[in-house]
DNA sequence: TTCTTATTTCCTGCTT
DNA sequence: TAAGCAGGAAATAAGA
C-alpha cells in the first residue's frame, strides 16, 4: 500500500472509488450496487453531490480517513497539485491523527506546495469548530469583552451590528444552507446598525444568536439544540417565549424543519422525488445500520456489541447525530432528538430495547440488511 | 385534497 | 449534577 502511488491527478470520484468501492455516504442496496466500472459513469452527480465536502460540516477531530481523503482531494484539485508524487499511505490517516500534525510535519508529508495549503485549511476548520463549541456563557463573555473593547475605540457595539446588507439579505442568508461560511472571510465592511427595537428583539440576545450572526451550533458534547438558532428557519417562524427566569428567548417551532429551496437541496431529495420509493439509507435506522456495516468509513462512531444479535452501541453519539443532521440538512440535530426517533422504532419492532445500558440499542425483527447471513447473500 | 408515515422538536419525569 | 432514557404531544415534509 505504501508503495502505491497515485498515478495521476486525484479526483474526488476516483479517490472514493479507490477507498471504498462504493458511492459515498448513502450506501446502496447490495443487490443493486453498481459495479466499480459503471459507478463513475452512472452516478456522477449523485456521487459528487453526496460526498462533496461532507467533512466541512464535521469537526476535523471527528473526521474519518475518508473525510481526510476527501479534504485532501479537494485541495489537490484546487491547487492543481501533481498528485503523482503523493503516496496513498499518507492519505489513510483519520481526523485525530491529522489534527496532531504540525505545519512542518504537513510540509514534510505533503510537500512544500500542498503542505502549507492543507495546514492552513485545517486550522480554519479547527478554528471554526472551536468557535462553534463555545458555550452560550462563553460567547456572552466574549461578546461583552469585545463590546467594551470596541466601545473604547468608539466602534459600534457587537450587539448593534448585523453582518450583511439588508433585512432581505439577512433573511435569505439565514434560509440558505450555510455550507460555506468561513470566519477567515469575515469582514466588517458590510455592517449595518440596527434600530433599538431590532436589537432588543432578535439580535441583541446573544444567548440566542451566534457571534457575528454565525450559528451557535452545539458542540458535539452539548445536549440540547435549544440555544442553537436554526438556519433553516426564517426568523419570523420563531416563537419568542419567556423562560422561567423571565428572560426571553427564541424558540424553534416544533416539527420537521421546512424544506430547503430546490437550488439548495441535495440530489438525494431530488432523486427521492423521482423515485416511487425512498432510496436506501433514507431512514434513520438504515443510516445507523450503514454506519455499522461500514466501519472503515466511520471509525469510532459506533460499534457492534453483539453482531449476531444485532446489538450495537453509540461511541460518539453527538457526532453520529450531527452526521444524521447533515444528511437531513438539519444543523441542529442532537443525539437527544435522534434517540427520540430511535425510540419510536421500538413500537415498530425495527429496534428492541436494551434495558439498563446507555447508548446501546438492538435491531429488531423488522430491520434488515445488518445480519451477516443477509450480507453474504447480497440481500 | 386528505391521509399516512417518518421524523423533528419540546417537554416532563425518571434513572444511571 | 449531567447525561441518557422514556414517552406524550404537537408539528411538518413528503409520499400515497
UniProtKB/TrEMBL annotation:
Ranges of biased composition (kind: Basic and acidic residues): 241-250
Low complexity composition bias: residue spans: 195-209
Residue spans crossing the bilayer: none
GO cellular component, one term: nucleus
GO BP term, example: cell differentiation
Annotated ranges, domain PNT: 42-129
GO molecular function: DNA-binding transcription activator activity, RNA polymerase II-specific; sequence-specific double-stranded DNA binding
Residue span, ETS domain: 282-364
Record keyword Transferase present: no
Region named Disordered: 192-278
Family, similarity comment: Belongs to the ETS family.
Protein name: ETS-related transcription factor Elf-3
Amino acid at each position: 500500500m505504501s508503495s502505491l502511488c497515485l498515478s495521476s491527478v486525484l479526483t474526488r470520484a476516483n479517490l472514493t472509488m479507490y477507498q471504498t468501492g462504493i458511492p459515498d455516504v448513502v450506501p446502496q442496496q447490495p443487490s443493486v450496487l453498481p459495479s466499480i466500472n459503471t459507478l463513475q459513469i452512472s452516478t456522477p452527480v449523485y456521487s459528487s453531490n453526496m460526498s462533496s465536502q461532507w467533512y466541512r460540516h464535521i469537526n476535523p477531530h471527528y473526521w474519518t480517513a475518508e473525510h481526510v481523503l476527501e479534504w485532501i482531494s479537494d485541495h489537490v484539485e484546487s491547487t492543481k497539485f501533481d498528485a503523482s508524487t503523493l503516496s496513498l499511505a499518507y492519505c489513510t490517516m483519520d481526523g485525530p491523527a491529522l489534527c496532531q500534525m504540525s505545519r512542518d510535519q504537513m510540509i514534510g508529508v505533503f510537500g512544500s506546495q500542498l503542505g502549507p495549503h492543507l495546514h492552513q485549511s485545517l486550522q480554519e476548520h479547527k478554528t471554526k469548530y472551536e468557535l462553534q463549541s463555545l458555550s452560550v456563557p462563553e460567547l456572552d463573555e466574549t461578546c461583552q469583552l469585545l463590546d467594551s473593547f470596541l466601545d473604547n475605540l468608539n466602534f459600534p457595539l457587537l450587539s448593534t451590528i448585523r453582518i450583511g446588507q439588508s433585512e432581505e439579505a439577512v433573511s435569505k442568508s439565514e434560509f440558505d444552507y450555510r455550507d460555506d461560511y468561513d470566519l477567515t472571510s469575515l469582514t466588517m465592511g458590510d455592517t449595518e446598525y440596527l434600530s433599538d427595537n431590532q436589537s432588543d428583539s432578535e439580535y441583541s440576545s446573544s444567548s440566542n444568536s451566534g457571534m457575528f450572526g454565525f450559528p451557535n451550533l452545539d458542540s458535539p458534547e452539548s445536549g440540547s439544540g435549544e440555544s442553537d438558532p436554526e438556519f433553516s428557519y426564517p426568523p419570523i417562524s420563531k416563537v419568542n417565549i419567556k423562560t422561567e427566569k423571565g428572560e426571553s428567548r427564541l424558540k424553534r417551532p416544533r416539527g420537521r424543519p421546512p424544506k430547503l429551496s430546490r437550488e439548495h437541496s441535495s440530489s438525494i431529495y431530488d432523486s427521492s422525488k423521482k423515485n416511487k420509493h425512498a432510496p436506501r439509507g433514507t431512514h434513520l435506522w438504515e443510516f445507523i445500520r450503514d454506519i455499522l456495516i461500514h466501519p472503515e468509513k466511520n471509525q469510532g462512531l459506533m460499534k457492534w456489541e453483539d453482531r449476531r444479535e444485532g446489538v450495537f452501541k453509540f461511541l460518539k453519539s453527538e457526532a453520529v447525530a450531527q452526521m444524521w443532521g447533515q444528511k437531513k440538512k438539519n444543523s441542529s440535530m442532537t443525539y437527544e432528538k435522534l434517540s427520540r426517533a430511535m425510540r419510536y422504532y421500538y413500537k415498530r419492532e425495527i429496534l428492541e430495547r436494551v434495558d439498563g445500558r446507555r447508548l446501546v440499542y438492538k435491531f429488531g425483527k423488522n430491520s434488515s440488511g445488518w445480519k451477516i447471513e443477509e450480507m453474504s447473500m447480497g440481500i
